[in-house]
Design a protein that fits this description.
The structure holds two protein chains of two kinds. Chain A is built from four helices and no strands. Chain A has helices at 2-7, 12-32, 36-60, 65-92. Chain B is mainly alpha-helical. In chain B, 68% of the residues lie in helices and 0% in strands. In chain B, helix 1 (2-22) runs antiparallel to helix 2 and helix 2 packs antiparallel against helix 3. The longest helix of chain B has 26 residues, at 50-75. Classes of the chains: A mainly alpha, B mainly alpha. At the A-B interface, helix 2, helix 3 and helix 4 of A face helix 1, helix 2, helix 3, helix 4 and helix 5 of B.
């Protein structure tokens, strides 16, 4: 058992497959859940899946640019969360329930 | 040892992700999100991305999740919602099919193209005892030389986001008068 543990090493393919699974879970969450806060969290899951694949590929092809991309993704995600939560707070001023089905005011 | 780290971190990531999707209480979902983010940070460390792991913990687990919890408490939606109703017919099976399909397509692409990826760049510095700041030095050199324009644009983006949120969330005194 310990010999097998020392032989099997996780390659970056493992990390990429994990990130694909994480992205799929986030996609399902965005499509299934109706609470906009939870949908935001699922978008964060998808962003983190992409970050993980960036870092895994960065170490596989031995290039630091993947980590730089993750740095920018982190900053943009922070800005996105700030604006999105501001929108949710201002929507909740006018109504009582927090469900995306009720926010159909712009529907044609 | 690396296998052990990978298995534990992957279990954290997947358990947290499933928790975010399935928990009915938004506070529990935010806590599950913290679990996922810590798992991702562990994987960053496993790939010698120490600076990103620290930023992940500080920005994501520290700032973003606290912001989520703050909004949950501010809006008073920290009650479990009823997940048994399904307003759109067959929404969940279709969503599961699409999500699993996206994952399957990406995994198939990864597995079929894994042989073509070799070490092509100039290398990622490994953090050692002798040079504990190797990763952060290399990252800073690339960010402040090749990507300095993108860095400045990012700071403008953050400023715009902050000002925009303040304008949006501020209580306007003259609602309906057009001013």
């Amino acid at each position: 058992m310990s010999a097998m543990l020392s032989v099997v090493q996780p390659t970056s393919t493992w990390y990429l497959v994990l990130s694909a699974v994480l992205f799929g879970i986030g996609t399902i969450g965005v499509m299934v859940r109706r609470n906009p806060l939870i949908m935001f969290m699922c978008i964060e899951l998808m962003l983190n899946a992409v970050n993980l694949s960036f870092v895994a590929l960065s170490s596989q092809i031995a290039n630091i640019d993947g980590q730089v991309a993750v740095f920018f993704v982190l900053v943009v995600a922070a800005a996105e969360v700030v604006v999105g939560l501001g929108i949710i707070v201002s929507i909740m001023r006018r109504r009582t329930t927090l469900t995306v089905d009720d926010m159909s005011g712009l529907k044609g | 040892m690396e296998l052990f780290v990978f298995v534990v971190a992957a279990a954290m990531v997947l358990a947290g992700a499933l928790g975010v999707v399935t928990r009915s209480n938004p506070v529990h979902a935010a806590m599950s999100l913290v679990l996922t983010l810590f798992g991702i940070a562990v994987m960053f460390v496993a790939h010698n991305a120490h600076f990103l792991a620290a930023v992940q913990v500080i920005v994501y687990a520290g700032a973003i999740v606290v912001l989520f919890l703050f909004v949950i408490m501010l809006l008073g939606v920290d009650k479990a919602e009823d997940l048994s109703v399904e307003p759109i017919t067959n929404q969940r099976p279709l969503a599961a099919i699409i999500g699993v399909g996206i994952s399957a397509i990406v995994i198939a692409a990864i597995v079929s193209s894994r042989a073509g990826l070799g070490a092509a760049g100039e290398g990622v510095n490994e953090t050692t005892v002798d040079s504990p700041d190797a990763n952060i030095r290399q990252l800073a050199r690339v960010i402040f030389s090749d990507n300095v324009f993108a860095f400045e644009i990012t700071s403008v983006l953050l400023l715009v986001a902050v000002v925009g949120t303040v304008v949006m969330a501020r209580k306007t005194k003259s609602v309906g008068t057009g001013k």
